Every structure is written in C-alpha cells, then in structure tokens.
C-alpha cells in the first residue's frame, strides 16, 4: 500500500482518471490518503477523513511512508481558520491555502504558518458562525472551498471546522444522526435534507434560528425553511422539498 499527502492548496478529485471527467470532490492542503491504484499519470486514492475515493494527478501529491501516514492521522486536528492564508516553504516561497486546510503536516513538509487555526471540538452553537464564513461562495459541484462549494461539501466543511465528521456525499450524510419529526424539534446546527420527485435525497442545508436555513444553491445563501421545504424570496417560490431533519450532534 502506498500513502500520500496533498502538498498543494486545492487538488481536483475526479470520478475517472481524465482531466475532463466529473469533479467528485477536492483534496485540500494537508489531507492524507491511501493510494489504492497507481497508473502512469493518475492515482486512485481513498481520503483518510471521509473515505471518499477518486482519481488525482500524480504530479499533485507527495508520497509518504506508512509510518508518517500513521503519525499524521494520529495527530490532533489543526485547521486553517481564515478564508485564505499562506504557507511558506523551505525556499521562502508562498503557497495559498483555503479555509479548512490541515496543518498537522507543517513540520513534515518543512513548511511554516503563522495564521489563525482552529482545533478540537467546538460548541454546536459555533456551527452557524462558521457557516457564515462561506456566505456568497459560488456553487461548484464537487467544491469544498470558499471559492466554490456544493451543498454536501458546505455542510461537511462547516462540521469539520468544528471538530465533527460528516461523509462527503449528501445521501451518505442523510444516514447519519437521529431523525426528527418536526422542524420545531430542531435547533441551530441541525441538518435538513431535501429530495427530488423520485424521492432521491439531493440537497442539504444547515438549520438556523427562527426558521431560516443556510445552504449552497447558486451560492451559499440564507432562505426561509418551512414544513414544505426551502422558500426562496428572490424567486418567490419553494426551490427544495423537505424530506427529513437530522440531529447529528
């Protein structure tokens, strides 16, 4: 088994080993993973954090020994806490990193960082404050950063920054936690899931106080939430049909 770490800011994780195929997710600076298949140009990887699997360019990661991989996953989680920050390498060159990048491997990579970081489990009440940091981020299928993010990537990163784990895909997240019967039972930070006409769960957002929700739809935005779903005041209609509310923490 081969192991790797992302030593660049944002690496595309694709469905197939081609630059033109669908963006499945993104690998952020400091993320570690197992390499489960390696080809001439591409490697299929499994991320340690959420077990998401996909293909990345062989030129966009650094191979590491198993002992270092094990040491890094045992390290306490430290994540960058600003929208964008800088890493300085051994040659005094700067590398930009986005919100939520892992800082556990700074010493291993011989990089330095003097920005703000967050670690450990934060109070559930902090989830909404974190969610606001992504406000107006454009929607991007497969995205996980303030420069482009999808619905499940948004909820995953908000939870991750506060010390909680969510799976990457919306249908996987919908299987986590405890289902609530009514919106009135929910509290800020709980997750609301929405389905399409075929009953497939296709969207997720974070519940806010007073029947509001923050979610990624066109951009990360705040809308009204009721028993029918999400009501978008800009278009004056419901845009998503409520399926279930889950309390994960």
List its traits.
single chain; 249 residues; mainly beta; SH3 type barrels; endopeptidase fold (from Nostoc punctiforme); 2 domains; five-stranded antiparallel β-sheet; 5 helices; globular
How would you describe this structure to a colleague?
This protein folds into 2 domains: 2-119, SH3 Domains (SH3 type barrels, Roll); 126-247, Alpha-Beta Complex (endopeptidase fold (from Nostoc punctiforme)), CATH 3.90.1720.10. Helix content is 14%, strand content 40%. The chain contains 5 helices and 20 strands. The chain has helices spanning 66-74, 106-109, 126-133, 151-161, 170-173, and strands at 2-5, 10-14, 23-28, 32-38, 42-47, 53-57, 62-64, 78-80, 84-88, 94-98, 117-119, 144-145, 148-149, 178-180, 191-195, 201-208, 212-217, 219-225, 229-232, 237-247. Helix 3 packs across helix 4 (151-161). The longest helix is centred in the middle third of the chain and has 11 residues, at 151-161. It is globular. The two termini are 34 Å apart. The mean pLDDT is 96.
Give the secondary structure arrangement, pairings included.
Blueprint: E1 2-5, E2 10-14, E3 23-28, E4 32-38, E5 42-47, E6 53-57, E7 62-64, H1 66-74, E8 78-80, E9 84-88, E10 94-98, H2 106-109, E11 117-119, H3 126-133, E12 144-145, E13 148-149, H4 151-161, H5 170-173, E14 178-180, E15 191-195, E16 201-208, E17 212-217, E18 219-225, E19 229-232, E20 237-247
Antiparallel strand pairs: 1-4, 1-7, 2-3, 4-5, 5-6, 8-11, 9-10, 12-13, 14-20, 15-16, 15-20, 16-17, 17-18, 18-19, 19-20
């Amino acid at each position: 088994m081969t192991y790797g770490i992302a030593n660049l800011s944002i690496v595309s994780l694709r469905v197939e080993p081609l630059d033109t195929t669908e963006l499945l997710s993104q690998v952020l600076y400091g993320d570690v993973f197992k390499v489960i298949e390696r080809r001439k140009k591409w490697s299929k990887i499994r991320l340690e954090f959420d077990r998401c699997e996909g293909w990345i360019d062989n030129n966009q990661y650094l191979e590491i020994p198993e002992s270092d991989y094990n040491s890094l996953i045992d390290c306490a989680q430290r994540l960058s806490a600003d929208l964008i920050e800088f890493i300085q390498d051994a040659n005094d060159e700067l590398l930009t990193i986005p919100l939520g990048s892992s800082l556990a491997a700074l010493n291993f990579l011989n990089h330095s960082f003097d920005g703000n970081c967050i670690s450990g489990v934060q109070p559930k009440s902090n989830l909404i404050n974190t969610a606001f940091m992504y406000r107006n981020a454009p929607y991007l299928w497969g995205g996980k950063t303030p420069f482009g993010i999808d619905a499940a990537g948004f909820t995953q990163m908000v939870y991750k920054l506060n010390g909680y784990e969510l799976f990457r895909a919306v249908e996987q997240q919908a299987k986590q936690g405890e289902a609530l019967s009514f919106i009135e039972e929910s509290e800020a930070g709980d997750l609301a899931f929405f389905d399409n006409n075929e009953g497939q769960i296709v969207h997720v957002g974070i519940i806010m106080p007073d029947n509001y929700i923050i979610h990624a739809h066109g951009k990360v935005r705040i809308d009204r939430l009721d028993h029918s779903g999400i009501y978008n005041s800009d278009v004056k209609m419901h845009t998503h049909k409520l399926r279930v509310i889950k309390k994960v923490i």
